[in-house]
Amino acid sequence: MLSRFLPSSKTSFNALSEQEILALAISCEEDDARIYQTYADGLREDFSDTAKVFDEMAAEENEHRGWLIALHQEKFGETIPLIRREHVKDFYSRKPEWLVKPFGVEAVRKQAADMEAQAHRFYLAAAKRTEDASIRKLLGDLAIAEAGHIATAKGAEKRHAPAEVQEDEAAKEHKQFVLTYVQPGLAGLMDGSVSTLAPIFATAFATQDTWTTFLVGIAASVGAGISMGFTEVASDDGVISGRGSPIKRGVTTGIMTTIGGLGHALPYLIPDFWIATNIAIVIVFVELWVIAWIQKHYMETPWSRAIFQVVLGGALVFAAGILIGQG
Fold first, then answer.
1. pTM listed for this prediction
2. Please, which pLDDT band fits residue 179 given cuts at 50, 70 and 90?
3. d(Cα 20, Cα 52) in Å, to the nearest integer?
């Protein structure tokens, strides 16, 4: 907030000299090459064909940087001013590669396309601001090159990642998503939804006190979430099984376990016992249906089997809770 009232440490793009424009272009090309190489290295193990695309893009960015440095040496000498994107007002920024990679190969490809479009617009604007013919020509050529870089990437994609390879990569990515997030999340949701039925409804029918039932439900849900999360982390480091980061799996399991229990605990915030209980029962059926849908959609479990397993298990635990509570 205070930064709005303090003098800005950034300069306007229109205030840059021709030397500073070249220096900015050099740093931008260097950053983009490093980002593309990071993408390539991150994708190489699981998506080796697409990694080659980003290797080529990194090499081309380094070539552009070489052209710009050579022209700067010719026009202004060996000393290149230190000016980067963050030094220029309203200039486009780059997302750190760790914000993009976890979201998959398609997200990385889209980010690369956005990067090239931004670079193209920068070179067009920079060329308009220069009067030196050789600088203007190089910036114009780079604008054309950046516009064609997407086509180049697509050409590399055709060579290194044709349709069948991309389909295989998509299948691998989907499988990894299922192993790292869906399976642990499903296990957590099932445990949270089913295992908390007995203590919550046993307390409800034993006390008919909604606040006590709510507290028991919160304790059971949070406790089960913490327990399931730590169990998932400790059970498999993911190296041999290929199930991915144990931290990601543990967090997913813990959160989904807690959510599964909270679903039928929260209605007991309602003071009226029977209204709260009826709402909780409806929510239980919704939770069981969601579990069956996830099994069918992601685990390819037949509807009949998924519904039978979930409904039977849920019904048995639900009945146990009511019987214990009334006993």
1. 0.49
2. confident
3. 33
